[in-house]
Write a structure and sequence with these properties.
Chain lengths: ~375, ~300, ~270
Amino acid sequence: MTEQGVAVSAQSVSKVFGVPPNGMRALDAVSVDIRRNEFFTLLGPSGCGKTTLLRMIAGFEAPTEGTILLEGTDITAEPPFKRPVNTVFQSYALFPHLTVAQNIGFGLEMLGRNRAEIDTTVREMLALVRMEEMGGRLPAQLSGGQQQRVALARALAPRPSVLLLDEPLSALDLKLRQQMQIELKRMQRDTGITFIFVTHDQEEALTMSDRIGVMNGGRILQVGSPHEIYNRPVNRFVASFIGESNFLDAEIVESGRPARVRLAGGLEATADCADGEAASGKVTLTVRPEQIVLGQEGDGSGLAGKVTNTLYFGTDMHCYIDLDNGAQLVARTPATTDGRGLHQVGDAVSIGFAPGALRIIGG
Amino acid sequence: MTRVPPEAGLLEANVEAERVKRNWLLSLPALVLLLVGASGPLVIVLVYSFMEPGDFSGVVWNPTFDAWVQIFFSRDIFDGTLGLADAHLTIFWRSVRLSLLTTLITIAFGLPTAYFIATRPGRARVFWLFLITIPFWTNLLVRTFAILEVIRSEGLINTWLQKLGVISEPIQIMYTDTAVLIGMAYVYLPLMVLPLYAAIERFDFKLVEAGYDLYANRWQVLRRVILPIVKPGIVAGSILVFVPSLGAYVTPRVLGGGKNMMIGNFIELQFGQGRNWPLGSSLSILLLLIVMVALLVYVRVSTRGADNA
Amino acid sequence: MRKGKPFSIRRIPGFTAIAVTCFVLLYAPILTIVVYSFNAGESVALWKGFSTQWYYEAARNEAVQEATLRSLIIALSASAISTVLATMAALGTTRTRRFPGRTLIYVMINQPLMVPEIVTAVALLIFFASIKVATGYSGLGYLILAHSAFCIPFAYLPIRARMEGMDLALESAAADLYATPWRTFRRITLPLMAPGIVAGAMLAFVISLDDVIITEFVKSAGQDTLPTYMLGQLRRAITPEVNAISTVLLALTVLLLTVFFLLSGRNTAKS
């Protein structure tokens, strides 16, 4: 981690709106290090504090407590126009009375660069976002996707060390959004700028990020690569917010790493531990739908249950299963091209788990 | 929950304090001007209402309640007893009566007009709005003068009625209560139409469709669906008409002459021939109080309406 | 129910008739004045042919010239002063979180709209009377002061309306792009506020030009504005000159309003 270096560091940052103790605590002693050249995503539901944290890095909010460091320098008290950090706003915030070119060149103008340099950079940026012919247009004449790209170009033109993106894709329709996701990822890799991306869309976070910080209730719950977040969620919230999860009750038979557990209904299996210590007694397990193995009834090897509902997705099928022990599960099976072997409502099935699928989360 | 230690948030507090200071500094010049040129002098009026009249103008510094008593009572010059000041009461009654009538007339004409404009399609609506806005912005004096030209003895109505042989001699409309009423209704009509238009324009006509779907006829829809929802607009327009009518000065003076005084003219008299500045002051304060009460009622009614909506 | 006419949910019988009648009644008196201002004869009773003599008479009349000049000076000054002050006040009170005293500022700014003009007129009469005695000054200053004060809310409202429609993020974006607060104001805030400021200035100008009651009470002897001159004339003798002056004022109003409607039509189309 030391070779990569830390670009932005938030240290024990808190933000309280209103007068304590009745105030709303938007951020609660949040600490996170974002590395240079990485694509870092802050992910969480509305109101979790991710936008507040982003605005604090940009300089639009002052923290109630804590410090913000940029490349090791304390910028907590610096106004936004003194921070070499630029933002792509959710509403794009393009200046309606300036042309596209004037918008893009605005930051450089404010920094006092000469005309020639501004013009060259603007042209480069227009090429980067593939809008070379649109320099003379006004924002009102652009489509949503085009406005978004201008907002991006405008924020990149001053070549900041860190780029902040506040849910920039949320107003775009699906196809456009998917295109932009690929573009943004490419741009980040090409320019090497640290991207801090805020979104509530967990799929977006998984596809684009080098690392994700999952937030809820003003706290950061887990920081890790998409793979880590998905396969080794640290608690129930993270497990259910990212992708789909099933939760089962079980009891520790033999603690250790991995531990041996017995599920209600008698099946014994091994399960990984979420945190360092081995748990004991009653626990909750989590397992992803695609790691559940459906077998015919009477296999004897798994838990018994019945299919109550099926949803066909083309690529796979979701089966909603009521277990005999009272729990409910969602399982995902790949769909076959000939439609054979697909489960139907009312089928009796036997549930098994892929190796390493089960994970202990909380007691 | 962790408590926020007192030294924390210093940066945030500074930013906040700066913001408040900046907002106040920006607003200050306007506030100072308003204090000197509008609000401040009102206090002087209040003070004067408790003084004694000077010989020709101004006041003598001699605190008394006389000016307030004189609003409603007058002292008999022979035996000094207090009796109701009939002349004053006539003026007050005329003011209230005419203001109420003006409000009713403007509602009666204004509601259909506002409804008409609000239900015009696209460009036509802008045209009609433009048409109703012109009288609104035309000089009050010009509008009053226009009515004058219509109702006076050599005016439009009398000339044409005589020409058509309907009457042989001009009807005396000028210098009557009716003339003042016509004038005020004419002058204040646009003030009623505009808030009504705003309310009707916001009205969702799907509700009317729902009403018809549920077997209501046109009048029931008007009475039970449209009017209740548009009511805040009616109240707003009523206040916008009633309040200025009560304090009207130009229209009663031009159309009513010296005899049909309303409160505004009566106040002016005290600063002119009446030579009773304290009485003029007390009347002004009284008028102000009535207006404030009317405004409070309006705020109450409209916020309650907003809660129910 | 009449056959052949499709059922319209918006139609309320009688309303259109009343509305049209209303417009006719509204415009008939005004049009009378306009038409008869070109009457060679002296009264509405007799049309003696087309003539613009009353316009010449009015233009030549020294009292009218003085009054017009005075009206313009006061209106221009009051409009300028009140618009500047109102712009500053709008910057301090819109699009910002609540702060102590904000309600007080609103009340004070809107107070001229709530207090009957006659009361303000009386108050200023008394106030300025004492100052006149103390300083001996009786120039236009009092009128300009009074007009500037009551024009403030009229300038403030359109400016505020325009600002409320502005995206807060725009100023954040400018700051994000290295613009200091002053440069943000000059390059972003002010240009975007401009239509509101122009509308406010126009409104203030018209309101000042129109004012009768406060001007009548505050003015010193002989210090007529156009409206107070007309008021004086109406009490004495009704000359056709007043017709001509009225028509000119009317034309000015129509002109200003047309400009206003065209501008706001274009603005809404752009945004």
